Amino acid sequence: MSSEPVNMDWLKTDGLKSVVAQRFAKFCADDFKANNVSEDPDSDLYKEAVQLILGRIESSVSGDKL
Amino acid sequence: MIITELLAENFRKYEKLHLTDLPEKGLIAVNGSNESGKSSLGDAICFALFGRTNQLTDERIGKLVHWGKEEAKVTLSFRHRDKYYRLTRVADTEGEQTASLWCVDDEAALADTSDEVTAALKKLLGYGYPAFIKTFYWSQQGSDDNRADTESLQAMAGVKAYIGLEETFSTEQEKLSTELGKIEKDYQASVDVRDATGVDQDWLPQLVEVRDSLEVCEQDRRGLTQNVNQVRETYTEKHSTFHQLIRKNDRLGWFTTLGLVLLVLALLAWALLTFSPDLLVSVWPEVTQQAITVGRGLLWFCVVTAIVTSILMLYGWNLERNQISPLYDEAAVMSDDLQRSADKLNVDMNEYLGEDTHNYLAQSGLLYEDDDDKKWQSDPVHLEDLSERMRTYKADPLETVAAADGVSMALDRQNKTLYRCARAVDKDVEIERARVDDYIVLNADVQRYQKLRDERINGIKVREKGRELIKKASMHSIRSFNRVVHGRCQELLSDFTQSHYTDLEIDNNFALKVLSEEKGDYLEFEEISAGTQRQISLAMRVSLANTLAESTDANGQFMFLDEPFAFFDPERTAATINRLHESTAGNLSQVWVTVQGMPEGLDAAFMVNCSLENSELNPDS
Questions:
Q1: What are the tens digits of pLDDT across the range B195-246?
Q2: CB B124, CB B116: distance < 8 Å
Q3: What pLDDT is stored for residue A62 in this prediction?
Q4: Sign for the pseudo-dihedral over CA of B256, B257, B258, B263
Q5: Residue B152: predicted pLDDT
Q6: Which ipTM score applies to this complex?
Q7: Where are the alpha helices (DSSP H) in B276-324?
Q8: Fewer CB within a 10 Å sphere, N or C end of chain A?
Q9: Res. B314: pLDDT tops 90
Q10: pLDDT for B322-379, tens place per residue?
């Protein structure tokens, strides 16, 4: 198993406002590292899906209530 | 965080609201009928802390200002851990806010602007608005909506957003699939139309290359023709000049030789008369002094002869170098031009045009039978000999002109063929270019559909992956939630529901289930009555509030419950009140409860009575 640090620059959590988005981002960060997604050929798809979900949660007006 | 004093001016229905000496432990009951301003107390607390309420966000916060007034002001005094603070927030009718936070014990300003206050409170309390509103603030949300409590519990478990998103993604996937089907058809149709043009994209560059090679050959032939014409026009003149100069040079050579002979003879005579006169006298006694004088005169003759001969030699050298030698160079150039032109004419057409160009011209019927004949040059050996003689101007001008005429005419004929072919290929290029332009337009359509198709395919894949992630994240949240409920909430749940229900969990399909003690099995949350749903939801909220209050180590925490007993019968209300009262002994030490009419058994540490008529509320006064 590779011991190199996983690059997580693509997942920016600083600007996330809603708690749900922050929690989801944390889950994805853990999942990404735990499952070595960076070595998966579909890793771009994974990142795109994460960004889409975070964007939807953040853009939801009642995101904090979700 | 425990509230010790609340002062609001021009806030909602209140011109002035002032609650002082609030107890740090126990229930604070706010009693009143509909529209009496009970909920405004919760709004005032929420506004003071976070600059917004459950219903009004930043943009609409001006609606909180009392009718006819310019601004609303709320001052909240509170204790957090062992220190006392005073928080003031003001909003005008435009929604502009100012705020300040003051530490009473330290007599120090902690923040002077709305943003600074938000940041300072987050740091101080350990939570912001989102956590507050989901944990320490309860309103009678959606009382006419049967799903409100279910959604509230799903939100507590952190899966409500996921459920909504999963459904949205699923719908979007279906929509994208439908669009993809239509786009696929349009895409295939556009491909068929494009391919029907039969355009080979490599063909136009090849055709342009054919045309260019024809133009290069044509220009080359034109240059050669000019050179040959130049030969024809200048050779005769140069030939005449050359021979005149040669004759002149021959005469100079003759005179120079004569001068040298005379010089030698005169020198010998002078030497005899000057250096051996005795020898001369012994041979010829009559030689007198006159002869010696003649000898001296010979010296002058030698000098003059030497000067003249030198001038002649110099003149001859100059003639050779500056006039005759350049003519030789020019003759070499003319000879080379003629020979090179003739050599080019002797090359086969498919060689100098290239095989592709020649084949294209032949296949297109642009070449005639006599285009490549070489009848002009019946004796190539003769031309070679002529060219060699031209280098020394030994070739006859008439013969040279005739040969140059022949080469020039042949070049001209080749030029005409090349020009004719180039113009024909020009037309072919023009036609092919128009076809390629059509192809480009049609191909742009194909690419546009391809892009749309790829976007849809990617969109479907992303949403598929998104649903997969949502599912995983949901399972993760559900496991955490169920763990918390099993570990920390069962007792509270049992107390709130008078031991009817003792456990709650969310299954993998996001369905809420409660464990009924009577039936010994889990029931669907929506199967049970609205009142019980509300009890369970309230129990979970109190439990989560306890957990958060404990984790923030606040040494006491307030909670605001807006009409929590709305669906409860007297028995349930009493049970819930008892349990809430017991809760105030722990971390959740100050619990605000709004009610419509004081329930039996409510042992409040502080009472606030609101009425429809009063715009001022000050229990002490």
A1: 999 999 899 999 999 999 899 999 998 999 999 999 999 999 999 999 999 9
A2: no
A3: 43
A4: positive
A5: 67
A6: 0.91
A7: 277-283, 289-319
A8: N
A9: yes
A10: 999 999 999 999 999 999 988 888 888 888 888 888 888 888 888 876 655 555 554 5
Q: Which amino acid is at B552?
A: T
CA-CA-CA-CA torsion sign (B575, B581, B584, B586): negative
Nearest to B420 by CA among B374, B365, B345, B376: B365
Cα three-residue angle B425-B431-B433, rounded to 5 degrees: 100
The stretch B274-292 carries a mean pLDDT of 71
Residue given tokens 């001022």 in the structure block: B616
Tell me the nearest-neighbour CA distance from A57 into chain B, angstroms: 7
Q: Give the torsion sign (CA, B443, B444, B448, B454).
A: positive
Is A28 within a domain? yes
Q: What pLDDT, on the 0 to 100 scale, is given for residue B149? A: 65
CB contact under 8 A, B465 and A64: no
DSSP B127: -
Among B424, B239, B226, residue whose Cα is nearest residue B338: B226
Q: Does A28 touch chain B (CB under 8 A)?
A: yes
Q: Would A4 be classed as within a structural domain?
A: no
- Beta bridge partners, B71, equal B92
What count of other Cβ atoms lies within 10 Å of the Cβ of residue B30?
A: 27
pLDDT, tens digit (0-9, with 9 covering 90-100), for B516-538: 888 888 888 888 888 888 888 88
Q: What are the angstrom distances between the C-alpha of B195 and each of B183, B186, B429, B445?
A: 18, 14, 20, 12
Domains of chain B: 2-159+510-617 (3.40.50.300)
- Look-up: residue for tokens 């997580």? A8
Checking B138-146 for CB contacts under 8 A at 24+ apart, the result is B138/B538, B138/B541, B138/B559, B138/B560, B138/B561, B138/B562, B138/B564, B139/B39, B139/B42, B139/B54, B139/B562, B139/B563, B140/B562, B140/B563, B140/B564, B140/B566, B143/B566, B143/B567, B146/B526, B146/B530
3-class secondary structure, B87: strand
Whether A28 sits inside 8 A of B473 (CB atoms) is yes
Query: CB of A22 within 8 Å of any CB in chain B?
Result: no
DSSP string, B417-446: HHHHHHHHHHHHHHHHHHHHHHHHHHHHHH
A44 located within any domain: yes
Residue A46 to residue A52: CA distance in whole angstroms? 10
Angle at the Cα of B365 from the Cα atoms of B359 and B370, rounded to 5 degrees: 90
Confidence of residue B561 (pLDDT cuts 50, 70, 90): very high
Q: Which of B507, B508, B501 is nearest to B538 (CA)?
A: B501
Give the structural domain span for A37.
19-60
Burial of residue B378 (CB within 10 Å: 0-12, 13-18, 19+) is exposed
Q: Does A19 contact B at CB distance below 8 Å?
A: yes
Q: Which helix (H) or strand (E) holds B6?
A: strand B2-11
Give the closest residue to B41 by CA, choosing from B5, B70, B67, B93. Answer: B5
Mind telling me how many Å the CA of B459 is from chain A's nearest CA?
A: 9
Asked if B466's CB is within 8 angstroms of A57's CB, the reply is no
Q: Is there a contact between A63 and B473 if contact means CB atoms under 8 Å apart?
A: no
Longest dimension (CA), chain A: 42
Q: How far apart are CA B592 and CA B562, in angstroms?
A: 8
- Number of domains composing chain A: 1
d(C-alpha B481, C-alpha B297), whole Å: 145
**Residue A13 placed within a domain:** no
pLDDT exceeds 50 at position A2: no
Check A31 against B469: CB less than 8 A apart.
yes
Place of tokens 């040669």: B246
Residue B188 CB coordination number (10 Å): 13
CB B111 within 8 A of CB B120: yes
